[in-house]
Design goal:
Layout lengths: L1 E2 L4 E2 L4 E2 L4 E2 L4 E2 L4 E2 L4 E2 L4 E2 L3 E3 L4 E2 L4 E4 L13 E4 L4 E2 L4 E3 L7 E4 L4 E2 L4 E2 L4 E2 L4 E2 L4 E2 L4 E2 L4 E2 L4 E2 L4 E2 L4 E2 L4 E2 L7 E4 L3 E5 L1 H6 L4 H15 L5 H8 L6 H11 L21
Parallel strand pairs: 1-4, 2-5, 3-6, 4-7, 5-8, 6-9, 7-10, 8-11, 9-12, 10-13, 11-14, 12-15, 13-16, 14-17, 15-18, 16-19, 17-20, 18-21, 19-22, 20-23, 21-24, 22-25, 23-26, 25-27
Antiparallel strand pairs: 27-28
Length: 268
């Protein structure tokens, strides 16, 4: 174990033998840190945080502090659970759950750039990139492979679908369906066709996703009518994922489509 002499590690913490902990870092009670992890200087890992193997926590990161929720009681037992091989760069903040027994969750192989904030009870999937100074309110869920552009803000209780990408300095309070490009204030501009190819989706899957996208956004049907018509089409798993996301969108609904004159952004 490579623990700097100025670091403070609570005796109840379970820290793997090869973990590096830098100067003035603090590791709180009942923290678990897996093998091959690095905690850089001045980072604070608060009590009841679990961190898997191969993680990197940058300088000044704060993991597991109390949520920014006026209803929160300091006596509640709440948690943060972080998976494996995540990179959490300097000065990121990840808050623990708010309700008794609840948890803020992060999967595997995510990359949080400097200054990102993940609010209480968020659920981050796998292979997600969250760029500098993104702000995620409480109860935001982010699907696998999403890319959140720098300085974006996400309202509490919303969802970002798998392989979606958001333009920097945008703001969202409505759900962002999977596979789309979203930007500005609650707008979808098209499909993330480059991301779909890079993710290995077949040409057939991509064509079906385009069909589902057009049905929801450009067919002239309202959402209920589009969902009804989609039920008559034999979509594969990927396009069905898009439709199912729309069906189960939160109360505020999905981001609407912003049409570019003379350009179809959902085409290859």
């Amino acid at each position: 174990m490579k623990i700097h002499s100025t670091a403070i590690v609570d005796p109840t913490a379970k820290v793997a033998a090869d973990v590096g902990i830098g100067p003035y870092a603090v590791v709180g009670a009942r923290v678990v840190i897996g093998e091959r992890s690095t905690i850089e200087s001045h980072a604070v890992i608060n009590p009841d945080v679990t961190i898997g193997v191969g993680n990197f926590i940058g300088h000044g990161g704060i993991i597991g502090t109390a949520p920014q929720d006026l209803s929160f009681s300091p006596g509640r037992k709440t948690y943060v659970a972080i998976g494996n091989e995540n990179v959490i760069r300097e000065h990121c903040t990840i808050h623990r759950g708010s309700a008794e027994g609840s948890v803020t969750k992060m999967g595997d192989k995510n990359f949080l750039m400097a200054g990102a904030h993940v609010g209480h009870n968020c659920e981050i999937g796998n292979n997600v990139i969250i760029a500098n100074n993104c702000l995620l309110g409480g109860h935001v869920s982010v699907g696998d492979g999403a890319f959140l552009g720098g300085a974006c803000v996400f309202h509490q209780h919303m969802c970002v679908g798998r392989l979606a990408i958001t333009q920097g300095a945008s703001a969202f309070s409505k759900d962002i369906p999977p596979f789309v490009i979203a930007a500005e204030r609650n707008y979808v501009f098209g499909l993330n066709v480059v991301g779909l190819r890079r993710a290995g989706l077949s040409a057939k899957d991509r064509d079906e996703i385009k069909t589902a996208f057009k049905l929801v956004y450009t067919s002239g049907l309202n959402i209920a009518q589009a969902i009804e018509k989609a039920a008559t089409i034999k979509f594969g798993a990927a396009a069905r994922e898009f439709i199912d996301f729309v069906v189960h969108a939160k109360k505020r609904g999905i981001c609407p489509y912003h049409h570019h004159e003379g350009r179809e952004d959902y085409e290859d």
